[in-house]
Design goal:
With 370 residues, the protein is an alpha/beta fold. It is built from 12 helices and 12 strands. Helix 1 packs parallel to helix 12, helix 3 crosses helix 5 and helix 6 packs across helix 7. The structure holds flavin mononucleotide. The site of flavin mononucleotide has 25 residues, from strand 8.
């Protein structure tokens, strides 16, 4: 299987919180414990996955009753693997950027530069109340996240770093040691206007919820146009809940079972909480602004991306996402270990074949034009 820089990348959600990736009573052969997760990380890197994304949650929401902390858990997964990059989720507010810069610089040294961060901005007011953390308005949360990202980069790359922001201040600060190259990549989660504008200015990667190809294209075009005007370049990652089965009927039956067995109280409670996210932003867009009950059963709208069907159907849909500018697909599964292995064996090779064919065709076109 050949890959190159333009090959689409694959990431999976680390199940470091209990309850799996769907708010449903359906059986999920997935565990949040460290033994299961180390094995999963090893299966993922052997199956062609590039990244693993951990989650940060301080209290239960939609059922995720137990939650392992993201930075320490990510480090454990990096120690159990040799190639996989692990993205630690960070929530400004509870974390101060000086602490994160130092923690991640050390993990970068311990793991040959394989650690990255996902700066999330908070959607769960009850969680902030539970830990006594002030709850800022939607766009203020993003203003803080943007300062957080600027500060992280500054500390990681400059000596005598100075910063005078509304949220953070640094005076002649020199972090030693700084991260070795490659510098830790900075991802962000969120898709409201404020989230997209932040991506177009400072983030290396923009992560968004599941959506149709047209919905994703609109976001990609919007962000890339703004990033270009800012002289910045940003890569795009899209969430999807994958159900790959030998036949389309089997895959659709699994989706139906997940939704039929949804936990309605937990889904409604989640719908109530996420109203504090993009719906509370001035333009009322954002991650869950248009989600239906069925969409929310996968808590990042992962069904909407429609990677549900046979390996061939899924591979073609992934290439369609790539064609509108997507660089990475972030995947959730019902039974993680088994399905990551199946996906690596049956779907990723088809994607690589389709990519190679498209490149060969483009090469022929370039030659013909010469
Ligand atoms: C791929 C992805 C991963 C996320 N991971 C977390 C997380 O681990 N913890 C968290 O509190 N929020 C997480 N978020 C939520 C975002 O940071 C943000 O609060 C949410 O998307 C609402 O943003 P918006 O309404 O401004 O679009 C994630 C979002 C995405 C798209």
């Amino acid at each position: 299987m050949t890959t190159n820089d333009s090959s689409i990348k694959f990431a999976y959600w680390v199940p470091n919180v209990s309850g799996g990736l769907v708010i449903s009573k359906i059986e999920q052969r997935t565990s949040w414990d460290i033994g299961y997760n180390k094995r999963l990380a090893q299966i993922a890197e052997a199956s062609g996955f590039d990244y693993a994304l951990s989650q940060i949650r301080f209290t239960a929401g939609y059922g995720a009753e137990y939650q392992h902390e993201s930075v320490s858990f990510s480090h454990a997964l990096l120690e159990a693997t040799t190639k996989l990059k692990v993205i630690a989720a960070i929530l400004p507010g509870p974390w101060h950027p000086a602490v994160v810069a130092k923690q991640i610089a050390t993990i970068n040294h311990l793991t040959e530069g394989r650690v990255a961060v996902n700066i999330v901005s908070g959607w769960f007011r009850g969680e902030f109340a539970a830990i006594g953390e002030p709850w800022l308005d939607h766009d203020e949360r993003y203003r803080r996240s943007e300062e957080f990202i600027r500060v992280l980069r500054g500390i990681w790359t400059e000596d005598n770093f100075n910063f005078r922001g509304d949220f953070y201040r640094f005076t002649n600060y020199s972090l030693k040691p700084k991260p070795i190259d490659p510098q830790p990549e900075i991802f962000q989660g969120g898709s409201s206007r404020a989230a997209r504008d932040m991506a177009s200015r400072v983030s290396d990667w923009y992560f968004t919820n599941g959506n149709s190809v047209e919905g994703i294209k609109a976001q990609v075009d919007d962000i890339r146009a703004k990033a270009k005007a800012n002289g910045h370049s940003v890569k795009i990652g899209v969430n999807a809940f994958a159900i790959a089965r030998d036949t389309e009927a089997e895959a659709q039956a699994v989706l139906k079972d997940i939704i039929d067995q949804a936990n309605p109280e937990a889904v409604h409670a989640f719908a109530h909480e996420v109203a504090n996210a993009g719906k509370a932003s001035p333009e009322r867009e954002g991650n869950w602004a248009k989600s239906t009950f069925e969409d929310l059963v996968q808590y990042n709208d992962g069904f909407k991306t429609n990677l549900i069907g046979t390996p061939q159907q899924i591979a073609e849909r992934i290439v369609a996402l790539k064609d509108v500018g997507v660089d990475l697909v972030l995947l959730g599964f019902l039974h993680f270990q088994e399905e990551v292995a199946y996906f690596g064996k049956h779907v990723i090779p088809l994607v690589r074949e389709l990519e190679a064919k498209a490149e060969a065709k483009a090469g022929v076109r370039v030659q013909a034009a010469e």
